[in-house]
UniProtKB/TrEMBL annotation:
It is an enzyme of class 2 (transferase). This is histidine kinase. Its EC number is 2.7.13.3. SUPFAM superfamilies: ATPase domain of HSP90 chaperone/DNA topoisomerase II/histidine kinase (SSF55874), Homodimeric domain of signal transducing histidine kinase (SSF47384). One of its GO terms (cellular component) is plasma membrane. CDD domains: HATPase, HisKA. It is found in: Cell membrane; Membrane. It comes from Conexibacter woesei (strain DSM 14684 / CCUG 47730 / CIP 108061 / JCM 11494 / NBRC 100937 / ID131577). Keywords: ATP-binding, Kinase, Membrane, Nucleotide-binding, Phosphoprotein, Transferase, Transmembrane, Transmembrane helix, Two-component regulatory system.
Length: 463
């Protein structure tokens, strides 16, 4: 945004050339019009020089034109004298007209320059706004914004820094404080000095745009925090609803059975049935508490796996033994499955939840359990013959407290926590889990675990 006016010496040369050219051009015209009338041609030269090189060069050209007009074309020629008084008037009028023309040309040039500067300021402001406000990360746009600013100021480089600048004051070492609402929000550092006029045009716009960008960033952060709080509230509400319902059911059953056990009129069979109900509901309550604790550790990042080489077949059989199912389990595991490096306890909890879920919805049909190696992955499939799940629900069923619509009114009791715990433990051990299902045709849960080369000996026994 610097003034592009040519140097003074160029103006002097151009003025002299214009006067010389005009003086020569008038000679042919003297045969047609009176010599005094040809002086107006000099005004064209004065206007051109003043428009391009400024007022003072234009005035100099005007004086030079008057002298040349007097010497070469006003009788007596060859001398700076005027014999006819009318020629004195013509020469004076010419000088005044030339001065006015130079002044008007300078005013027009100044206005044109001002308009050009304002256009460049508008282009710069638009580019800075696009860079600092157009993207999602304002801080990554500081470098390109500083480069654009340096080009506008015709400087080798510039840097925009956020913050209070560690106490930098004034313009020391090219550090220019950037303020917004009376507070320092950053520092503009220039690699070379810039004029006060240029800085006065650029810095206020940069301060305004940077202030808006920082305010927008703060608002976005508030929005993110608000959304996080809302999600937390939703989770808390869902947790309270689920826990209050799922805890109330076994507690109510335990309290009712315990109260009934105090009756002296119970037979031994009735007393045994009530005791079994208390035991069953206590186990159900214990499983719910375990799931809540597991989910809490997963969401809090406190469930880091303790990786050791373990046998998936052994983990599956432990989980099967701990999961009751009247129809039983149909187990098909390939021989010589490789060991996996994972947390056996977490895998057992994940498989137990999948088996419990499959047994709950499998009805009177056995649950199939398959395990085999495919490439460098170990695949475990747990298949039930339950009601199935719609495709739109296959991903959502792994969300905490979510139950597929097909299973909400089927008489089965579930907290919606088991599958969330499954995904958390499997992914913590670098695995994946997903569901495959068609409505009315059962559901298959697939667990995929990485197979690594065993790099340390496995101790089978001692003795």
């Amino acid at each position: 945004m610097r003034d592009t006016r040519p140097p003074l010496w160029a103006g002097v040369v151009a003025g002299a050339a214009a006067v010389a050219f005009t003086t020569l051009a008038i000679y042919p015209l003297r045969e047609i019009v009176p010599a005094v009338s040809t002086g107006v041609i000099y005004l064209l030269a004065v206007l051109l020089v003043a428009s391009w090189f400024g007022l003072w060069v234009g005035l100099g050209t005007a004086v030079a034109s008057a002298l040349a007009f007097n010497w070469f074309h006003i009788p007596p020629t060859g001398r700076f004298t005027v014999s006819d008084p009318q020629n004195w008037v013509a020469l004076a009028v010419f000088l005044v007209a030339a001065a006015i023309a130079s002044t008007l040309a300078e005013i027009a040039r100044a206005r044109t320059r001002e308009a050009e500067l304002r256009r460049r300021e508008a282009d710069l402001a638009a580019d800075l706004a696009r860079l600092l406000l157009g993207g999602s990360d304002m801080r990554s746009a500081l470098r390109p914004a500083a480069d654009r600013l340096a080009r506008a100021l015709a400087l080798p480089g510039a840097t925009i820094e956020l913050g209070d600048g560690d106490g930098d004051g004034g313009d020391a070492d090219g550090a220019i404080p950037l303020l917004a609402q009376g507070e320092r929000i950053g520092t503009l550092r220039l690699d070379a000095p810039a004029t006060d006029e240029a800085l006065g045009r650029v810095v206020p716009g940069l301060e305004a745009i940077l202030g808006v960008a920082l305010e927008r960033e703060a608002l976005q952060q508030d929005i993110v925090e608000t959304q996080a709080l809302r999600r937390t509230d939703v989770i808390k509400t869902s947790l309270l609803r689920a826990v209050s319902h799922d805890l109330r059911s076994p507690l109510t059953a335990i309290a009712t059975a315990g109260e009934a056990l105090t009756s002296p009129n119970l037979t031994d069979a009735e007393r045994a049935e009530l005791a079994a109900a208390v035991t069953g509901e206590s186990q159900r309550l214990s499983r719910l508490v375990d799931k809540l604790l597991d989910l809490s550790r997963l969401q809090g990042g406190a469930a880091d796996p303790r990786r050791e080489w373990c046998s998936v077949e052994e983990v599956l059989r432990v989980a099967i033994d701990e999961t009751p199912h009247p129809a039983g389990f149909n187990v098909g595991i390939d021989r010589d499955l490789p060991l996996v490096r994972a947390d056996a306890v977490q895998l057992e909890r994940a498989f137990a939840n999948l088996l419990e879920n499959a047994a709950r919805y499998g009805g009177d049909h056995p649950v199939a359990v398959r395990a085999r190696v495919v490439g460098h992955r170990l695949l475990i499939r747990i298949v039930d013959r339950g009601p199935g799940i719609h495709g739109r629900e296959l991903e959502r069923i792994f969300e905490p407290f979510h139950r597929a619509p097909e299973t909400r009114n089927d008489g089965h009791v579930g907290s919606g926590l088991g599958l969330a715990v499954v995904r958390g433990f499997i992914e913590a051990n670098d695995g994946r889990v997903w569901a495959e299902s068609l409505p009315g045709q059962g559901t298959t849960f697939v667990v995929e675990l990485p197979v690594e080369e065993v790099r340390e000996p496995v101790v089978e026994g001692v003795g």
